[in-house]
């Protein structure tokens, strides 16, 4: 029974990853950002976020990356994290950054909540944030 309790949330995150993958392919970037976020500036709205909720998002996305039959990229992970944040009413910020590697411009997305990097943290070194949006539950 314990295994089933762990499997159901991960299955939900896998389904959200499929939805995010589809959304990325059919919805233009700016419209998608407006859809999953609700502002451009962070607000101190006094909402305390339990680290266990942020850890759930992180670990479930890590498990999904391993189990998915496609490559779950940083942008898709950020969308899933924002969808979960909306469901759990967690304030979250998504950043999109750029850096140059061997003369090529490379993009990366990461999310943060409570000052903690939730997704994309392992690969964000050297990236400069060029665009961000936030989800604030009290809006």
Kindly report how far apart the N and C termini lie.
39 Å
pLDDT averaged over residues: 85
Strand count: 4
The global form is: globular
Structural class estimated from helices and strands: alpha+beta
Radius of gyration: 15 Å
Which strand-content bin applies to the residues? 15-25%
Q: What kind of sheet is the major sheet?
A: 4 strands, antiparallel
Briefly, what is this?
It contains four helices and four strands; from the N terminus they run ααααββββ.
In words, what does this structure look like?
With 139 residues, the protein is of the alpha+beta class. Helix content is 47%, strand content 23%. The chain is built from 4 helices and 4 strands, in the order ααααββββ. It has helices at 2-26, 29-36, 51-67, 74-88, and strands at residues 92-101, 104-113, 116-119, 128-135. The chain has a 4-stranded antiparallel β-sheet. The protein starts with a helix and ends with a strand. The model is unreliable at 1-5 (pLDDT under 50).
